[in-house]
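Customer escalation, tier 2.

The customer says the design service returned an amino acid string that "doesn't look like it belongs to this structure." They asked us to rerun it and document both sides in this ticket. The original structure tokens are below, unchanged.
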């Protein structure tokens, strides 16, 4: 059913909860997991400034890919740069480019109203996605 699962991670404890969920979905359907991270940068008067080091981002996705592979699921990794506040768009673009059947991600646990007011990445992804989105809490 889900041949390609995009696992969006950001290094938080909330996204860590999504790892076993994505692995389980892919394992049960014989699919693969694309471990994805949007490395954000800040655009300011002096130029663009990376919020996160490239090595840290690569280490994050490689570590999670190892966890997923340890349960027998095929994985690949992808890190892209994205302007601050546009992680949801980056996730959606990658899901489309990868041909993902599902997106799995963590959530901070805000309710619908708080998600609307705060503009959470999970909420934006759910609202704009054309494929299944699973949010682990």
């Amino acid at each position: 059913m889900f041949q390609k699962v995009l696992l969006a991670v950001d290094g938080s404890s909330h996204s860590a909860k999504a790892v076993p969920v994505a692995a389980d979905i892919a394992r049960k359907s014989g699919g693969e997991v694309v471990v994805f991270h949007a490395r954000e940068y800040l655009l300011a008067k002096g130029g663009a400034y990376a919020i996160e080091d490239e090595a840290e981002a690569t280490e994050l996705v490689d570590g999670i890919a190892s966890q997923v592979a340890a349960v027998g699921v095929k994985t690949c990794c992808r890190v892209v740069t994205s302007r601050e506040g546009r992680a949801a768009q980056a996730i959606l673009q990658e899901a489309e480019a990868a041909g993902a059947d599902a997106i799995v991600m963590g959530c901070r646990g805000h309710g619908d109203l708080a998600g609307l007011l705060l503009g959470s990445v999970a909420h934006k992804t759910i609202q704009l996605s054309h494929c299944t989105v699973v949010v682990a809490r």
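Tier 2 assessment: The sequence is consistent with the input. The radius of gyration is 14 Å. The chain has one domain: 4-136. Sent an explanation to the customer and offered a walkthrough call.
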